Request: fold
Amino acid sequence: MLIFNKTQERFLPYLTSRQVDQLPEKDKAVVILPVASIEQHGPHLPVFTDSIIVQEVLERALGNLPDDFPAWVLPIQSYGKSNEHTGFPGTFTLTSETFIKVLKEIGANVARNGFKRFVFINGHGGNTEIIDFVIRDIRQQTDLMVFALHVGLRVGVPTGGLSEAEMTYGIHAGDVETSMLLKCSPEYVKPEWAPNGLPSHLQGMKTPPFMGALNYAWLTRDIAPIGVLGNATTADPERGEKYLSNAASEVAGLLIKVKEFEFEKWQA
Ligand SMILES: [Zn+2]
Reply:
């Protein structure tokens, strides 16, 4: 899981120094940093869930691209910002300050190696705000073209087969993530421990209160004492397959756009 099985030829650290130096099409090449988390995902999913999902989606996306597509993948930055899950066993988080520094310094290295296009593919909601401001800082400091793909949040948003309550509140270790893990890494799932973590006291509201007009800081223990937001008991690997493959084809399409991106020509 820690390395790319299906896309080894695109794993940048397998190249030699000379190969990195002499890569063709360096101005078009897309350097990709998967970013995720190591954090509690309820009693039933591994703490590596976000990391597994983002690597699975990326592997599939790269498999959808032509063999000669110039994409180079860096080792996943699994340690993310997960302080919302502090207090639950299995959570390993960086502080915001450290996480920001690590991302910026990896960006500086991408630029120093002569690349022009750098993409974060993020699998953890808690990293989103930081990545969105860091990409601007990296652009300003290095002149790289920098992009962020937030899988499951803005890219490959799962639809189909989910109740309205799940669509509204199923943001962590619920039906969607459990379905995807049951498909791609079932050996790490404990279905017999899967809970229904829909917050009954909040249901009936179309917008979760923490996404409303008064944005308040929350920790997982404030809103979901069992660590799950969503109903994991309804998970289904067939839907998991659909969510993964839809996300992969959307990511593949966006990577093609990244390769061709020029500010003056860009049309979203
Ligand atoms: Zn997750």
Remarks:
- The pocket of zinc ion is lined by residues 41, 49-50, 172, 177 (CB under 6 Å).
- Residues 56 and 152 are 13 Å apart (CA to CA).
